[in-house]
Specification:
Elements (H helix, E strand, L loop, with lengths): L1 H23 L9 H18 L1 H4 L4 H21 L5 H32 L2 H10 L5 H19 L1 H15 L4 H19 L7 H9 L11 H15 L22 H20 L5 H29 L17 H6 L3 H20 L1 H12 L2 H12 L4 H11 L5 H13 L9 H9 L6 H5 L2 H19 L1
């Protein structure tokens, strides 16, 4: 009985303390202070390490984690010297809360994706495409279209890796085909992720921030489709004629429960959208509820799956009949992309620190006040081809420029598809350079940057035409 009472007193004390801290919160511009200059240098150096992650063989989360800690440490020291003991605490708690919502949202999505990978859902899709005996041009279009339509649900990185596996399997003797097809997949996956809150981290951040409603994202469908189709129509003429040799291997079969997990993932997405649109709750609470669906189904598989197995032994189902005792939901959680999650922490906290110093307000005043929203949002997309779109979009959201929905959709589009201009501009491009090492490279992508840029500006034009 004592525990609930103590908990209640603790929570009550926390509320009063937080309220008092918020009342004392005041941000002082440090843009001309040595701490401001030091924070910029620290962030730039950290991001240099991120850009050269492969060459240095250092995980990208390490430098940004350190940068975030040092930046806030310097800020705290200065505020302590000024006698302000509350403002930094409140600011960092606010920034951390934004990260926490993103973290748990992504953790649930990654757990579902890992579960589908373990149930061989994506392997089965890949093998069925391989054994069909399509021509090189047909495979080019199939993988591109599938990347465009799968990425809004499964995210652009996962989708690109799956489609690249198909390309590598059928184009073993055609390095030129692999290079062009990988460019096509990167562009398609990034474009498909731009018109869905679940397709890219940037769209997820925009949705969770509440500046664009769920249904409004689909106004970007046609601009995103044009962004993919324009370069694809040009690149197809560089493909080799003919088709790859037929592959006679037996395709991988979906394990029992695989399609049910796909259905539960869709139900989880519906739950998150419902929580946000109708109950005005953060989407992350819907995702965590959806995790309960998967955990309960995992319990069913471990406890009762063998009974279903015995009943289906004599069937000719496409599913694999096997013992379910090996399906461990915590194993799927453990296999989440932790480096990516910690990278997001470092980026969001570091950019939040720069914003607290005053740099984001200064930048917002220049690019959105002097250049105008349209020019600024187009530049955001171009910047995303060099610097990862996540810190760029988080910076824009932190600036809180006064824009209407049309302009918020424009920056969502440009930040999502701008990364396709260079292979290093998106997680999908970086991942495929590793997966198709030596065949899909920075320069093989750079060769097609002019036509990708044509698609980039064409998509902006279509957005102005249909949504303006």
């Amino acid at each position: 009985m004592k525990l609930p009472i103590i908990t209640f007193i603790f929570l009550l004390f926390t509320c009063f303390t937080t309220a008092a801290s918020e009342g004392a919160t005041r941000a002082i511009s440090l843009t001309d202070h040595w701490v401001g200059y030091a924070a910029i240098v620290i962030f730039v150096f950290a991001y240099i390490f991120v850009i050269f992650e492969d060459q240095l063989d250092m995980r990208k989360s390490k430098p940004v984690l350190l940068a975030a800690g040092v930046i806030w440490l310097l800020i705290a020291v200065v505020y302590q010297q000024m006698g302000d003991y509350h403002s930094v605490e409140v600011a960092i708690r606010h920034t951390f809360q934004e990260y926490a919502e993103l973290f748990f949202f992504l953790l649930v999505a990654m757990t579902y994706i890992n579960s589908m990978l373990e149930r061989q859902v994506f392997d089965a899709l890949r093998d069925r495409l391989i054994i069909k005996g399509f021509s090189y041009r047909a495979i080019f279009w199939l993988t591109g279209l599938l990347a465009f339509f799968i990425s809004p649900i499964a995210d652009n990185l996962t989708t690109a890796l799956i489609m690249c596996a198909v390309i590598l399997a059928v184009g073993q003797t055609q390095p030129k085909f692999i290079a062009i097809a990988c460019v096509n997949i990167v562009v398609a996956a990034n474009a498909g992720g731009a018109f869905s809150p679940f397709g890219d981290i940037t769209t997820l951040m925009v949705w969770q921030k509440g500046v664009v409603e769920f249904g409004a994202f689909f106004k970007l469908f046609l601009p995103a489709l044009v962004n993919y189709l324009v370069p694809a129509l040009v690149m197809q003429f560089a493909l080799s004629s003919g088709k790859p040799a037929a592959i006679s291997t037996k395709p991988v079969q979906v394990k029992n429960g695989g399609l049910v997990i796909v259905g539960l993932f869709l139900l989880t997405i519906i739950t998150a959208v419902t929580f946000h649109n109708f109950l005005h709750l953060p989407p992350v609470f819907g995702m965590m509820t959806g995790l309960a669906y998967l955990k309960l189904y995992a319990y069913y598989l471990r406890k009762f799956g063998h009974n279903h197995n015995e009943q289906s032994d004599s069937s000719t189902s496409d599913y694999v009949n096997e013992d379910f005792d090996d399906f461990d939901i915590f194993d799927k959680i453990a296999k989440a992309e932790w480096d990516t999650l910690f990278f997001f922490y470092g980026v969001i906290l570091a950019v939040g620190g720069l914003g607290f110093i005053g740099y984001l307000a200064l930048t917002s005043h220049f690019i959105y006040g002097e250049l105008g929203a349209t020019t600024a949002n187009i530049l955001v997309g171009l910047l995303s081809s060099i610097v990862d779109n996540i810190p760029v979009m988080f910076a824009v959201l932190s600036m809180q420029p006064d824009m209407n929905q049309f302009q918020w959709l424009l920056v969502t589009l440009t930040a999502g598809v701008g990364g396709s201009l260079l292979s290093i501009g998106s997680a999908a491009g970086v991942a495929l350079m590793g997966q198709a090492r030596g065949q899909y490279t920075f320069f093989s992508h750079l060769k097609w940057t002019p036509v990708i840029a044509l698609g980039y500006f064409a998509s902006i034009g279509v957005h102005f035409w249909i949504n303006g």
